[in-house]
Amino acid sequence: MKRKQLLKDLLAAGPAAEAPPPESPTPEAVGRRIPSGAVRAMGLDLSRLQEEARRAERLEQEMRNGQAVLEIDPASVDPSFAEDRIARTSDAEYRRLVESIAAAGQQVPILLRPHPDSAGRYQVAYGHRRLAAAAELGIPVRAIIRPLTDAELVIAQGKENAERRNLSFIERAIFAAELEAKGFDRATLHAALAAHPAEMTRYLAVARAIPRWLVRAIGPAPRAGRPRWMALAEAVSAQGALEVAARLAEQPDFRAAPSDARFGLVLAALRQVAPEPAAPALPAVPQGLSFIHIEELEEGTRFTILNSAPSGLAAFLLGRLVELVGEFEARRDGGEG
Fold first, then answer.
1. What is the pLDDT of residues 228-278, one digit of tens each?
2. CATH no. for residue 81?
3. Domain, as residue range, for 326
4. Most buried among 125, 160, 183, 280, using CB within 10 Å?
């Protein structure tokens, strides 16, 4: 009976109704879904990798633009191919620099370029003394790395020297001679040293006349100045002058003296070998220039323009004095302009 009753009940209920489809989860329910630990860790790793990739891209862009300041092992950095300073680490100022970096760190970064001939190495445009100080202290050097041509490197080198600690006359002369020997044109030399043509001629004339060993023996002599270095350049040409200078440079008292004192000792010794020549006699005043009076005095030569001179002549001559002196010095130093 039970079986018959069950069949009857099924027939009375009709066809079986299909089960309703499961409800789709709402967005809120999806948002509340908690991922497993492995999935969450993978998401964090991907985010970190993306951030590191973006950081690396920014760093690479900054390096290309010369904006990033990096810490570089001093052992991987080579000096500039163009010598400028005669003594970079033998003066009291360098010792003060080392002490300052040791106490407060390196505040101003140096400028490097990727070494053109050695992969993985760098070359200094400027900052040789800070590089030496970092190497001495055993710490990385803070540097900006920028791709530079040879010309851009020496111009940056010269500009930094002029703005931070200017070179002495002989250091500038040696720097100019180094650049000329490397084949740089005069325009690059003028830009690197911010020098006009007549001054560049003097630099090169002095650098050619005085042997490098004598320059190094004397040192930068910052107080000597252009006229005295030019006098020394003339004095070394006398017969036997270099032998006298070499003997002097070997003396312990000479080596112990400051650079400016060493310069004075050499110049005085060479003037004994070749006394200064007497000044040439002034040419006679040409006919028609009777309105200019010339007289020799103990302290020099006096030119006087008389009242009988044509109107405006005095102003005209004064306006030409600088040009005439520059032309005279250029001709005297070798005729280059």
1. 999 999 999 988 999 999 999 999 999 888 888 999 999 999 988 865 555
2. 3.90.1530.10
3. 292-332
4. 125
Structurally, how many domains does the chain consist of? 3
| DSSP structure class, residue 42 | H
What is this structure's pTM? 0.49
pLDDT tens-place string over residues 104-126: 899 889 899 999 888 889 999 88
In angstroms, how far apart are the furthest CA atoms of the chain? 162
In whole angstroms, what is the distance from residue 130 CA to residue 230 CA? 32
Please report whether residue 7 resides in a domain: no
Q: Do 144 and 176 sit in the same domain of this protein? A: no
Structure tokens at 66: 């010369």
Same domain, 150 and 67: yes
CA angle 98, 102, 103 (to 5 degrees): 120
Query: Is residue 308 in a domain?
Result: yes
Pairing between strand 122-126 and 292-297? Answer: unpaired
Task: Tell whether 12 is covered by a domain.
Answer: no
Least confident of 34-38, 76-80, 173-177, 226-230: 34-38
